[in-house]
Structure to design on (358 residues):
């Protein structure tokens, strides 16, 4: 059996309370006493029982984070930023991925509830937030991530996806495209639906422009390849002249279908292509991909800031719902030769031309 705090106290000739202060508030203890206690801890091999300490406190120092797909660099970047900001507050982030599966999402919520986490950051799949309401009623702060919680009792941090969808399709229309396809799914995802609404709004403002909606089973590279292959099977006259994808993974899959195999398509000469998120791989694709950039670092760090605020004075806390604006980053998949003339403005350290923020 390992050494206890009482053993450490006896070895250092101090009280158990002093050992506790050394572990939790060393500034309250004389330096010589701190040194004596630390020497006793090292000699006895004492490891404090954080589980017991957290049980007494009522909450752990862990933050639960549930995202839709940890394989999507967009969510990985958010998690990295959240983890960095959490570390500034002596918090640890525990990451779970729902894989767009409601039952997995619910299982993670229940698990984090049982572990008495400091708070929960979650990108919910659908509109049923009943489990999150129950968690909040039990005293655990809940922050919605990549979802606007305005009108709910939850704090949230989000990006205006309607504006993002409008940006993407307005850009396609500005470069002369009129037959536009929106590739995205499943439609139950709020982000997919909002980006479609923005795209529809942009099309409605341009005479002669149309929007064809192509649903996919998942927002993945594989689903994008399948959608791109289906477009290639059409007669050329029946194909769109531009494709807007609900995220960059779909767009990269479409680009793979368009640029490999016998029936390839010239991008953007025949079909312009734009994605969403501006993940790390977009500017190094075989045709550098235009995209709608989201401020992932701000999303992740702001989510932790909201959580800290919610825990500081729970009874007086008023939910906050910041919504960031996306920006267009135009590259070769929509600008073609125009982008090539801009490439000398790229980042010489990376050797990869940067897109133009519009």
């Amino acid at each position: 059996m390992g050494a206890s705090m009482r053993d450490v106290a006896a070895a250092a000739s101090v009280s158990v309370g002093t050992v506790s202060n050394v572990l939790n508030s060393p500034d309250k203890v004389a330096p010589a006493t701190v040194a004596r206690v630390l020497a006793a801890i090292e000699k006895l091999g004492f490891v404090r029982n954080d589980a017991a300490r957290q049980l007494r406190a009522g909450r752990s120092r862990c933050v639960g984070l549930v995202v839709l797909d940890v394989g999507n660099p967009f969510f990985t970047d958010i998690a990295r930023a959240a983890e960095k900001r959490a570390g500034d507050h002596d918090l640890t982030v525990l990451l779970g991925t729902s894989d767009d599966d409601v039952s997995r999402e619910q299982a993670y919520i229940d698990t984090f509830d049982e572990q008495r986490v400091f708070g929960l950051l979650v990108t919910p799949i659908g509109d049923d937030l009943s489990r999150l309401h129950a968690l909040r009623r039990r005293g655990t702060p809940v922050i919605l991530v990549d979802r606007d919680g305005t009108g709910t009792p939850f704090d949230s941090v989000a990006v205006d996806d309607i504006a993002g969808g409008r940006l993407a399709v307005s850009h396609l229309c500005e470069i002369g495209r009129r037959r536009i396809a929106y590739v995205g799914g499943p439609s139950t995802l709020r982000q997919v639906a909002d980006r479609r609404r923005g795209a529809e709004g942009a099309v409605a403002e341009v005479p002669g422009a149309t929007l064809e909606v192509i649903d996919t089973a998942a927002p993945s590279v594989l689903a994008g390849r399948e959608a791109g292959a289906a477009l290639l099977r059409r007669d050329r006259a029946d194909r769109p002249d531009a494709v807007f994808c609900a995220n960059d993974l779909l767009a990269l899959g479409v680009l793979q279908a368009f640029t490999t195999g016998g029936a390839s398509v010239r991008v953007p000469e025949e079909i312009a292509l734009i994605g969403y998120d501006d993940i790390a791989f977009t500017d190094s694709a075989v045709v550098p991909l235009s995209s709608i950039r989201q401020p992932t670092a701000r999303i992740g760090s702001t989510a932790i800031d909201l959580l800290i605020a919610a825990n500081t004075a729970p009874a007086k806390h008023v939910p906050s719902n910041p919504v960031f604006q996306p920006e267009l980053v135009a590259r070769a998949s929509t600008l073609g030769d125009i982008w090539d003339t801009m490439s000398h403005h790229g980042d010489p350290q990376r050797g990869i031309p940067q897109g133009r923020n519009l």
Observations:
- The chain is about 45% helix and 15% strand.
